[in-house]
Protein backbone atom coordinates (compact mmCIF):
# COMPACT_ATOMS: atom_id res chain seq x y z
CA UNK A 1 0.00 0.00 0.00
CA UNK A 2 1.08 3.56 -0.69
CA UNK A 3 2.69 5.55 2.09
CA UNK A 4 0.85 8.76 3.02
CA UNK A 5 2.17 12.07 1.74
CA UNK A 6 3.29 14.34 4.60
CA UNK A 7 2.75 18.11 4.44
CA UNK A 8 4.12 19.86 7.56
CA UNK A 9 2.08 22.95 8.50
CA UNK A 10 4.40 25.93 8.78
CA UNK A 11 1.90 27.68 11.05
CA UNK A 12 3.40 25.66 13.93
CA UNK A 13 7.02 26.61 13.13
CA UNK A 14 9.20 28.89 15.25
CA UNK A 15 8.86 32.15 13.34
CA UNK A 16 11.97 33.58 15.03
CA UNK A 17 13.90 30.68 13.47
CA UNK A 18 11.96 30.14 10.27
CA UNK A 19 14.95 29.41 8.06
CA UNK A 20 16.20 26.78 10.51
CA UNK A 21 12.82 25.06 10.59
CA UNK A 22 12.44 25.15 6.79
CA UNK A 23 15.96 23.72 6.43
CA UNK A 24 14.90 20.83 8.70
CA UNK A 25 11.86 20.20 6.51
CA UNK A 26 14.04 20.36 3.38
CA UNK A 27 16.28 17.62 4.78
CA UNK A 28 13.37 15.43 5.91
CA UNK A 29 11.14 12.92 4.13
CA UNK A 30 8.30 15.49 4.01
CA UNK A 31 6.63 15.59 0.60
CA UNK A 32 5.21 19.12 0.63
CA UNK A 33 5.16 22.26 2.78
CA UNK A 34 1.70 23.40 3.92
CA UNK A 35 1.10 27.16 4.16
CA UNK A 36 -2.05 28.44 5.91
CA UNK A 37 -3.02 31.97 4.87
CA UNK A 38 -5.57 33.59 7.23
CA UNK A 39 -7.24 36.96 6.87
CA UNK A 40 -8.99 37.48 10.23
CA UNK A 41 -12.33 37.58 8.35
CA UNK A 42 -13.02 34.06 7.09
CA UNK A 43 -11.29 32.64 10.18
CA UNK A 44 -10.76 34.41 13.54
CA UNK A 45 -7.01 34.71 13.17
CA UNK A 46 -4.30 36.24 10.96
CA UNK A 47 -1.23 34.25 9.91
CA UNK A 48 1.28 35.54 7.35
CA UNK A 49 0.99 37.45 4.09
CA UNK A 50 2.61 37.26 0.68
CA UNK A 51 5.91 39.05 1.49
CA UNK A 52 6.70 36.38 4.11
CA UNK A 53 5.43 33.61 1.84
CA UNK A 54 7.63 34.81 -1.01
CA UNK A 55 10.65 34.35 1.25
CA UNK A 56 9.38 30.93 2.37
CA UNK A 57 9.06 29.95 -1.30
CA UNK A 58 12.71 30.91 -1.87
CA UNK A 59 13.88 28.81 1.10
CA UNK A 60 11.73 25.73 0.62
CA UNK A 61 12.86 22.87 -1.57
CA UNK A 62 9.51 21.12 -1.04
CA UNK A 63 6.48 21.83 -3.28
CA UNK A 64 4.18 24.43 -1.70
CA UNK A 65 0.72 23.33 -0.61
CA UNK A 66 -1.00 26.72 -0.19
CA UNK A 67 -4.25 26.77 1.81
CA UNK A 68 -6.15 30.07 1.60
CA UNK A 69 -8.45 30.51 4.62
CA UNK A 70 -9.64 33.85 3.27
CA UNK A 71 -12.67 35.48 1.66
CA UNK A 72 -12.51 35.89 -2.13
CA UNK A 73 -9.37 33.74 -2.49
CA UNK A 74 -9.53 34.02 -6.30
CA UNK A 75 -8.35 37.65 -5.99
CA UNK A 76 -4.91 36.36 -4.97
CA UNK A 77 -4.48 33.86 -7.81
CA UNK A 78 -1.50 35.73 -9.30
CA UNK A 79 0.33 36.08 -5.97
CA UNK A 80 0.02 32.35 -5.31
CA UNK A 81 1.11 31.54 -8.87
CA UNK A 82 4.15 33.84 -8.58
CA UNK A 83 5.29 31.83 -5.54
CA UNK A 84 5.44 28.81 -7.87
CA UNK A 85 2.95 27.03 -5.62
CA UNK A 86 2.14 23.46 -6.56
CA UNK A 87 -1.42 23.59 -5.18
CA UNK A 88 -3.86 26.42 -4.54
CA UNK A 89 -6.47 25.36 -2.04
CA UNK A 90 -9.62 27.42 -1.42
CA UNK A 91 -12.47 26.91 1.03
CA UNK A 92 -15.79 25.68 -0.32
CA UNK A 93 -17.46 28.08 2.13
CA UNK A 94 -15.46 31.10 0.88
CA UNK A 95 -16.30 30.76 -2.81
CA UNK A 96 -19.54 31.22 -4.73
CA UNK A 97 -18.50 30.06 -8.22
CA UNK A 98 -16.59 26.88 -7.40
CA UNK A 99 -16.29 25.53 -10.93
CA UNK A 100 -14.96 28.84 -12.26
CA UNK A 101 -12.36 29.16 -9.51
CA UNK A 102 -11.16 25.57 -10.05
CA UNK A 103 -10.71 26.26 -13.78
CA UNK A 104 -8.84 29.52 -13.06
CA UNK A 105 -6.44 27.74 -10.71
CA UNK A 106 -5.71 25.10 -13.35
CA UNK A 107 -5.28 27.72 -16.08
CA UNK A 108 -2.71 29.39 -13.81
CA UNK A 109 -0.73 26.12 -13.91
CA UNK A 110 -1.48 24.94 -10.37
CA UNK A 111 -3.32 21.95 -8.95
CA UNK A 112 -6.80 22.83 -7.74
CA UNK A 113 -7.97 21.86 -4.26
CA UNK A 114 -11.02 22.66 -2.17
CA UNK A 115 -11.31 22.56 1.62
CA UNK A 116 -14.36 21.58 3.64
CA UNK A 117 -14.92 22.87 7.18
CA UNK A 118 -15.96 20.25 9.79
CA UNK A 119 -19.68 21.08 9.41
CA UNK A 120 -19.73 21.06 5.57
CA UNK A 121 -20.89 17.68 4.21
CA UNK A 122 -18.87 15.78 1.62
CA UNK A 123 -21.95 15.59 -0.65
CA UNK A 124 -21.51 19.30 -1.49
CA UNK A 125 -18.63 18.28 -3.77
CA UNK A 126 -20.56 15.82 -5.95
CA UNK A 127 -20.80 18.23 -8.93
CA UNK A 128 -17.13 19.28 -8.89
CA UNK A 129 -15.20 16.27 -7.55
CA UNK A 130 -14.16 15.19 -11.07
CA UNK A 131 -12.45 18.57 -11.64
CA UNK A 132 -10.48 18.57 -8.38
CA UNK A 133 -6.92 17.41 -7.80
CA UNK A 134 -7.41 17.29 -4.03
CA UNK A 135 -9.93 17.77 -1.23
CA UNK A 136 -8.79 18.93 2.21
CA UNK A 137 -10.98 17.93 5.13
CA UNK A 138 -10.56 20.14 8.19
CA UNK A 139 -10.51 17.92 11.29
CA UNK A 140 -10.63 20.99 13.56
CA UNK A 141 -12.42 24.31 13.15
CA UNK A 142 -9.99 26.42 11.08
CA UNK A 143 -8.11 29.38 12.51
CA UNK A 144 -5.84 28.09 15.25
CA UNK A 145 -3.19 25.40 15.60
CA UNK A 146 -3.05 22.85 18.40
CA UNK A 147 -6.76 21.97 18.47
CA UNK A 148 -8.25 18.58 19.27
CA UNK A 149 -9.06 16.22 16.40
CA UNK A 150 -12.78 15.84 15.55
CA UNK A 151 -13.41 12.05 15.38
CA UNK A 152 -16.29 12.39 12.86
CA UNK A 153 -13.60 13.27 10.28
CA UNK A 154 -12.86 9.53 9.93
CA UNK A 155 -16.42 8.96 8.66
CA UNK A 156 -16.05 11.91 6.27
CA UNK A 157 -12.81 10.46 4.86
CA UNK A 158 -14.65 7.20 4.08
CA UNK A 159 -17.60 9.09 2.54
CA UNK A 160 -15.23 11.16 0.40
CA UNK A 161 -13.33 8.04 -0.70
CA UNK A 162 -16.64 6.51 -1.80
CA UNK A 163 -17.60 9.67 -3.73
CA UNK A 164 -14.20 9.83 -5.47
CA UNK A 165 -14.41 6.18 -6.53
CA UNK A 166 -18.04 6.47 -7.62
CA UNK A 167 -17.36 9.55 -9.76
CA UNK A 168 -14.04 8.20 -11.13
CA UNK A 169 -12.20 11.22 -9.75
CA UNK A 170 -8.43 11.27 -9.24
CA UNK A 171 -8.64 13.67 -6.27
CA UNK A 172 -6.38 13.04 -3.29
CA UNK A 173 -7.78 13.24 0.25
CA UNK A 174 -5.85 15.55 2.57
CA UNK A 175 -6.63 16.05 6.28
CA UNK A 176 -5.55 18.95 8.50
CA UNK A 177 -6.09 19.46 12.23
CA UNK A 178 -5.00 17.53 15.31
CA UNK A 179 -2.97 15.08 13.22
CA UNK A 180 -0.44 13.06 15.21
CA UNK A 181 0.78 9.44 15.15
CA UNK A 182 -2.45 8.11 16.67
CA UNK A 183 -4.98 10.10 14.61
CA UNK A 184 -2.71 9.86 11.55
CA UNK A 185 -2.84 6.07 11.66
CA UNK A 186 -6.65 6.14 11.91
CA UNK A 187 -6.86 8.57 8.98
CA UNK A 188 -4.57 6.51 6.75
CA UNK A 189 -6.64 3.40 7.51
CA UNK A 190 -9.82 5.34 6.65
CA UNK A 191 -8.39 6.28 3.25
CA UNK A 192 -6.52 9.60 3.65
CA UNK A 193 -3.70 10.19 1.14
CA UNK A 194 -2.09 13.32 2.63
CA UNK A 195 -1.54 14.23 6.30
CA UNK A 196 -1.01 17.86 7.33
CA UNK A 197 0.66 18.03 10.75
CA UNK A 198 1.74 21.13 12.66
CA UNK A 199 2.47 20.78 16.37
CA UNK A 200 3.10 17.03 16.08
CA UNK A 201 6.08 17.82 13.82
CA UNK A 202 7.37 21.24 14.89
CA UNK A 203 7.05 20.60 18.64
CA UNK A 204 8.59 17.14 18.42
CA UNK A 205 12.05 16.59 19.98
CA UNK A 206 13.25 15.38 16.56
CA UNK A 207 11.26 16.76 13.60
CA UNK A 208 12.98 14.52 11.06
CA UNK A 209 12.18 11.39 13.07
CA UNK A 210 8.54 12.43 13.56
CA UNK A 211 8.10 13.00 9.81
CA UNK A 212 9.68 9.59 9.17
CA UNK A 213 7.24 7.95 11.59
CA UNK A 214 4.22 9.71 10.07
CA UNK A 215 5.42 8.74 6.60
CA UNK A 216 5.60 5.09 7.61
CA UNK A 217 2.27 4.77 9.43
CA UNK A 218 1.12 2.31 6.74
CA UNK A 219 4.08 0.06 7.49
CA UNK A 220 3.34 0.06 11.23
CA UNK A 221 0.02 -1.79 10.88
Secondary-structure element order, as H and E?
EHEHEHEHEEHEHEHH
Distance between the termini: 11 Å
Compute the number of helices.
8
Radius of gyration, whole Å: 16 Å
Our estimate of the beta-strand percent is 15-25%
Major beta sheet, strand line-up:
1-8-7-6-5-4-3-2
Shape: globular
What level of helicity do the residues show? 25-40%
Characterization of this structure:
The structure is a single chain. With 221 residues, the chain is an alpha/beta fold. It is 33% helix and 19% strand. It has eight helices and eight strands. The chain has helices spanning 18-27, 50-59, 77-82, 98-107, 153-166, 181-190, 199-202, 207-215, and strands at 5-8, 33-38, 64-69, 87-91, 111-116, 134-138, 172-176, 194-197. An eight-stranded parallel sheet has the order 1-8-7-6-5-4-3-2. The longest helix has 14 residues, at 153-166. 43% of the residues are buried.
Features:
single chain; 221 residues; eight-stranded parallel beta sheet; 8 helices; 8 strands
